[in-house]
Task: structure prediction
Amino acid sequence: MRKTLLVLGLLLMALTAVGAQEAKPVDWKVKVAEAMPLLGHRNWILIVDSAYPLQSGTGIETIETNASQLEVVRHVLGDIDRSIHVRPDISMDAELPFVSENDAPGVSKYRAEVRDLLHEYQIESLPHDQVIANIEEAAKHFNILVLKTNMAIPYTSIFIRLDCKYWSADAEKRLRAKMASAGQAGH
Result:
């Protein structure tokens, strides 16, 4: 009986230790650095507000950053810009310009700060539901990294679809035109 209790006690301690290890928060900066070489065109990195839902699709990984959204955006774009293989195609919610200060205190300041931060990038403005539909479709085939921030203003999420840095859309069009003129199948 004593041996059984001892074995059960040791098993309980081992399970508790494993549970405690799993509860450790993930260092989001380390996760981004580890993921960056693996991510390529058609993968997404989402930098979302605190109410963004935990999505359950295969290939979607969500990490709580416990950081400000602008800090996370700045860091992620820095990692992307330093990469040799990907560049960001950024989308934001079309609803953001219409959110009033009365309904969401701080939104005016946020819009100014994010405009300053992203001034070098072309931003596509899409309705929130359309962006979510694009992400859900992409998640069927490609990985999505969701970085959840402590932002508490609606429609502030920044959606980054990665594209190839060393091969432009114009180069792809020229390639497809050459293939079509040669009678080859395109994509």
